[in-house]
Amino acid sequence: MYASMTIVRYPRWLGWAGLFSMAIFRIPLWFNSSVSFWKLLGSGKNGTFSKVPDWRQWAVLLVHQNSREMEQAVPSLFRKWWSLFGCEQWTLHLEAIEGHGFWDGKPAFGKLPKQTDFEGPVGILTRATIRMGKLGRFWEHVNGVAERMADAPGLVTSVGIGEVPWIKQATFSIWENKDAMKNFAYRMKEHADVVRKTKAEQWYSEEMFVRFRILRSEGSLNGKLPFEIKP
Fold this sequence. Notes:
The chain is an alpha+beta fold.
């Protein structure tokens, strides 16, 4: 399946418009038959993985059955709204290639293989609903991992996103290749320890992990294009 994700950053003091849009944007999405799954998402402080919300940065994730529908992915109302408030916009067009798990009880990106032979630059979406009784344990451990991730070899960029602060959290990251991502995920001690504790202590009531081929990257975020597809 295919997906588009747009990360939007509002000018200073206009974050309230982003919050307001999360209510308004639901209406056209409810009636959009070309979108099989969608999420309107907030962001962590300065766009990072943080329990402190960033009121200036928001995201729209739309899932489609085919690439043709994705080409007209973002409703014109959204574009006009962002233009009105002078927002920066970074849009990614993605093809889901590997993954497992559920989002709201659904395989949001369809039935995917766990592995393929794709070796190019890869986008990674990890998301989870954290059990209320495990919030303390989760946030006690993940901040250190997020800090180490920022310096991980092969990481191009990452953004922290989520539906509900503290509880429903996600990270979207781009890596030079799958080997770089795997080296961080399985060979970096802090991350490996968190993965082990996540399973042993059952931190999550629901989780999802998906890898994407990046088909298009356009726009800007914080004054630059975070990822450029090389010819």
